[in-house]
Design a protein that fits this description.
This protein has 105 residues and is an all-alpha fold. It has one domain.
């Protein structure tokens, strides 16, 4: 775990407190903004796959804000969480190709 991971844990803890106090839509919007900033931070750090994983998790935040009915909510929310988690762990374990550096030789 690096400094970024500790920031993520602290941010999620703060958002958990906000979700208890605020409405679901407001908490979802705050969650989406936080995830979007994490994605940009990872992209700027040179980790595009992790940035994509955080962007996929923005879909879960959108599900909280839009709150579609029934199965659509389950698919959007849990599908985003599952896909984002898979991409994040695949990136951390170096299972995905390196798309950031270019070999010009």
């Amino acid at each position: 775990m690096d400094q970024f991971d500790y920031t993520v844990v602290a941010g999620f803890g703060l958002l958990l407190v906000v979700s208890v106090v605020a409405e679901t839509a407001l908490a979802g919007a705050a969650f989406g903004g936080f995830l979007l900033s994490l994605s940009v931070w990872r992209l700027y750090d040179g980790r595009p796959w992790e940035a994509i994983a955080w962007l996929i998790w923005v879909g879960a935040a959108v599900a909280l804000v839009l709150t579609p009915a029934g199965v659509a909510f389950l698919v959007l929310f849990f599908g985003s969480l599952l896909c984002g988690t898979a991409v994040l762990f695949a990136s951390r374990f170096n299972l995905l190709p390196n798309i950031w550096t270019v070999d010009r030789s």
